[in-house]
TrEMBL record:
Localization terms from the record: Secreted, Cell wall
One GO term of the biological process aspect: carbohydrate metabolic process
Any one GO MF annotation of this record: polygalacturonase activity
Name the record gives this protein: Polygalacturonase
Gene source species: Phaseolus coccineus
Length: 347
């Protein structure tokens, strides 16, 4: 078992940085046939605009004006000649309310094998409510799609994006290097299944800043093969907190190393399962973590004798449960506590 969970309440007000002014060529998706009426399928317009941007060497902005643009699965496929593509969204991209349309494709808006892409602003509405209901009813339903996924990509920015009601995970960073996520707002109902806010795996040098995440599952889940991850100024909750560990899909998974979690406030709920894992977790720092937990055990670090968690540092941690001090439950964890750490019974 190697999963670390911090869960805990919070109200937070955020101001987001204004969208960056881009240089170079601007391609308005409306000029490629997209319709801001919330109904007309604009998938092909997005693909055409992407094709143009990707094959150009001039920095290019794909501009999505105000309005609701209905799109199916869009794969923004690289490699591109272009190392400076900005997707600037003033309006909203909306998935079909029929969950079968994107529900089997793994991802809804998916960037693969790109370098130097920024997604700025906008609302991404996965319309996942129908699929969550299907899953809760016990019927056979599609697995669901991630709202926004990046795979095999480098030098990625997500700034001021709002991700709503994803069918599954909201944002996934997979096999990427140098990713900056800032001023992002994620929301889904507290009882929505498997709607993790941001999931990172097999990636290095990822920074997640100034964001608020409210979902039915982990706010941020840190999967195997994550190194040099920095998380700061996050309002998390409702949700299951920040978890580190395995997806439990393979027996031997790559470890998780050098993660800093700083200035995070929690409004958490109960965490369900700790998955069995072959993941080694080392050098994780929690600093300035506040909030109140919805369950008595606010800090859960359940590591296995074979894969112990080491180098865990807790500094200025203050988590309460109702009016009392919350508890920690730690197994096979080595590390140090400094400053005021409550609960303080981990090491
Ligand atoms: C993040 O938010 C803090 C406080 O809200 C602000 O001082 C800081 O400038 C923001 N950082 C960035 C990079 O926008
Ligand atoms: C740990 O990660 C941070 C970025 O999150 C990086 O600045 C730092 O150099 C890394 N430390 C080591 C020892 O690799």
């Amino acid at each position: 078992m190697a999963q670390i969970v911090l869960h805990a309440l919070v109200l937070f007000l955020f101001t987001f940085t204004p969208a960056r002014v881009a240089e170079g060529v601007t391609l308005n998706v409306v000029n490629f046939g997209a319709q801001p009426d919330g109904e007309t399928d604009s998938t092909n317009a997005f693909l055409s605009a992407w094709g143009r941007a990707c094959s150009s060497t001039t920095p290019t902005t794909i501009y999505v004006p105000l309005g609701r643009f209905s799109v199916g699965k869009v794969v923004f496929k690289g490699p591109c000649k272009n190392k400076g593509i900005t997707v600037r969204i003033d309006g909203a991209l909306v998935a079909s309310s029929n969950h079968d349309v994107i529900g089997n494709g793994g991802n809804w808006l998916y960037f693969d094998d790109v370098d130097g892409v920024a997604v700025i602003g906008g609302v991404l509405d996965g319309q996942g409510i129908g699929l969550w209901e299907c899953k809760r009813s016990g019927k056979i339903c599609p697995t669901g799609a991630t709202n926004l996924g990046f795979s095999n990509s480098n030098n990625i920015v997500m700034n001021g994006v709002r991700s709503l009601n994803s069918q599954m995970f909201h944002i996934v960073i997979d096999r990427c290097e140098n990713v900056r996520v800032e001023g992002v707002k994620v929301s889904a109902a507290g009882n929505s299944p498997n709607t993790d806010g941001i999931h990172v795996q097999l990636s290095s040098t990822v920074t997640i800043l100034n964001s608020s995440i409210a979902t039915g599952d982990d706010c941020i889940s840190i999967g195997p093969g994550t190194t040099n991850l920095w998380i700061q100024n996050i309002a998390c909750g409702p949700g299951h907190g920040i978890s580190v560990g395995s997806l439990g899909k393979e027996l031997e998974e790559a470890g998780v190393e050098n993660v800093t979690v700083k200035a995070v406030t929690f409004a958490g709920t109960e965490n369900g399962v700790n998955k069995v894992s072959g993941v080694e977790i080392s050098n994780i720092k929690y600093q300035d973590i506040h909030g109140s937990s919805a369950s008595e055990v606010a800090v859960k670090m359940n590591c296995s004798p074979k894969h112990q968690c080491s180098g865990i540092s807790l500094e200025d941690l203050m988590l309460t449960y109702e009016t009392k001090q919350a508890l920690a439950s730690c197994n096979h964890v080595g590390g140090i506590a400094s400053g005021l750490v409550q609960p303080n019974n981990c090491f």
